[in-house]
Predict the 3D structure of the following.
Amino acid sequence: MTSAAVNTIGALFAAGVAAGTLRSDMETADVVRAMGGLLRLDADGDWKGQADRQIRLLMDGLQTGAPARAEGHEPEL
């Protein structure tokens, strides 16, 4: 991803944090890494359905009020 794209994502993320709609305990790098999952979609399968699901999961996790996990704490399965 180009530095211009990362800078744009950072600016959008910072605006969301300032507006109180996005979590403040995350960083631009977290968003970029999460978006990387979109590069692994099955091009021969239901890529649109997979993309929709990944985007929903990403956006749900970024929203203010989403539960934060303590660093180093793994979720219980």
Notes: Residues 3-62 form one domain. Helices lie at 3-19, 28-35, 47-62. Residues 3-19 form the longest helix (17 residues).
